[in-house]
Amino acid sequence: MPYVETEKAQLYYELQGDPGPVVTLAHGGGGNMLEWFHQMPALLAGYRVLLFDQRGWGRSTCAVDDMQFRYFPTDALAVMDAAGVERTAIVSHAIGGWTALATAIAAPERVAGIVMSASGGGILSDGILRVFREGPGRVVGERGKIHQVITAPDFPAREPALFFLMQQIATLNQDVGAFMKRSLDPSNGVTQERLKGYTVPTLVIGGSESRIIPPDVLRDASTQIPGAEFQEIAGAGHAPPFEKPAAFNAMTLAFLARHFPPRG
Question: What is the pLDDT along the chain (264 residues), one digit of tens a residue?
Fold first, then answer.
């Protein structure tokens, strides 16, 4: 099984599919690389796909104290190097958006574009800080509680099997609560200074029913990223790739086709 050693972590990754342009997937805080099962068939039709468990999640080992945002871009680049990937587009969800944006900032020549689902990529706007501190998102970091509010309110009853699967995927992770709480520290946020000169094509996707980051709050945060587009998926909560995969895949593939075309 392929692993790469990075600073204070060992990262598990897989490169799947036929030769062609590579899309890298960066999962959310409540999942790991298994969460992308809805996206893999759609992406593999035109791309090679690089998946990895971020440090401390899934099969990637790391002490919770060494789960620090400063390692996110170097981890992603280390996985790309180990897999022999020179240039990629990054599709991400939730905390994975922090990896996508940080990597695009650190190495724009290696990132053709990024898609961030339910994430401002570390843009800690006043609105995002407010909803995480006062709204349902305040349970972020409390093991087992985030799934009570992560989807649209009707999703558990409408899709009980998928909701159960979502919960079970999360149990394969160590307790990352301490790290998730740190995500709300403004010192970890992406500043406008770091975004000066940013030109990487960026798409932010939000769910219309998100109780964690309401779409108006996410849309507002996305305006701080130069050139970023925002699209909304009706009926999705904080997990559009999982809740509304057909809509999410269509938006993602259309964006990729414009900025990082699939193999011919």
Answer: 799 999 999 999 999 999 999 999 999 998 999 999 999 999 999 999 999 999 999 999 998 889 999 999 999 999 999 999 999 999 999 999 999 999 999 999 999 999 999 999 999 999 999 998 888 878 776 666 778 899 999 999 999 999 999 999 999 998 888 888 788 888 889 999 999 999 999 999 999 999 999 999 999 999 999 999 999 999 999 999 999 999 999 999 999 999 999 998
User: Is residue 88 exposed (0-12), middle (13-18) or buried (19+ Cβ within 10 Å)?
Assistant: buried
Range of the domain at 182: 3-259
- Residue 146 is assigned to a structural domain of this protein: yes
pTM: 0.96
CATH of the domain at 152: 3.40.50.1820
The structural domain count of the chain equals 1
Residue 199 CA, distance from chain mean position: 19
d(CA 155, CA 165): 13
Tokens describing residue 86: 């020179």
219 conformational bin, left if phi > 0, alpha if psi -120 to 50, beta if neither: alpha
